[in-house]
Amino acid sequence: MAVTRRSLLSASGALASAALVPSAARASASANGARMRRIAVEEAWSIPEHFKALAAVSEGDWNNLDVENVRLLGHGTGPIPINLLDTERRLAEMDSLGIDMQLLSLTSPGVQIFEIETAVALAALANDRLADVVTANPSRFGGLASFAPQDPRRAAKEMERAIHKLKLNGFIVNSHTGNEYLDEAKFWPILEAAEALGRPIYLHPRCPSDGMAAPFRDYRMRAAIWGFQAETGTHAMRLILSGVFDRFPKLQIVLGHMGENIPFHLWRSDNWYKKRASAYPSKLPPSEVMKRNFHITTSGVEHGPALRYTIEVLGAERILWAIDYPYEEMAPAVTFMNSVDIPEAQRSAIYHRNTERLFHVASATGHGGLL
User: Fold this and answer.
1) Backbone angles phi, psi at 6, to 5 degrees
2) Could you confirm whether 324 is annotated as catalytic?
């Protein structure tokens, strides 16, 4: 997620802009006149303690790309932090645009840049607070739980607590941890827990790891313009080629931003897999892994040709709607999904049905917003 010119609009300006486009954003998304439910699945959120911990890290001299991004956010002030913290403001804008529900998750880089004990404690605190938000507004919010990959076994226990006790919907992890990736055996307790619990892991972007950071330091390439998708796509391809899905065949991973570029290269990836199959631990070619073990979201990519292509390659049942709020604006995401040229059955699947199935979100009998 990147701080962009669009996302730096003041909260009042964002609400005003939403009010200026009601006809586009509120347009019916159903041929029979019944408006479709809208559930957005990659929606950032935070708590003051998280900002305080991030501020402490950013005040040092750590030459890390994520820390550079954190410094831009400020220490809990400014439009982005305010919108991360204020769920009432968020609800008001959701109501103005007819957004039924958002699945909230602790903003990137989550707890993954902290020392182990801080990370474990902060993940648990964030999950408790998130559960409180969901309990207060169960028809409007769901939640993706954080965990500390720095300690995989305690992470697995927190994942179990998040589902069984806190009743959250799934998990989020912000790509690499300590410059290491989830395909490594030390992290397999996390993958095993997610599969056993039957809940997906949202593999969310963060800036490139230290080992690939150098080319991304120039031209502000570290974030959404290129660094996020390069980093997260690399992580996903490590998972795909490593064979972890042979070990955990029911595990589901979610990629944002129209699949972090991977769907657009699957033909070539498959072609080279077939030529050198013995070089790759995975028993399946990349496209089969993607169609069995991955879902993607539309977050931050409001582009009809890209959506139609991913539908053709992966199937509409593998795609979820997302906004990436507050780093992206709500109104354009709604307008795009309402108006993009796809069949109504696919629109309904992407807007809500796939999310209800994958994240165990209860089907709604009515609209939770104002429309």
Assistant:
1) -65, -45
2) yes
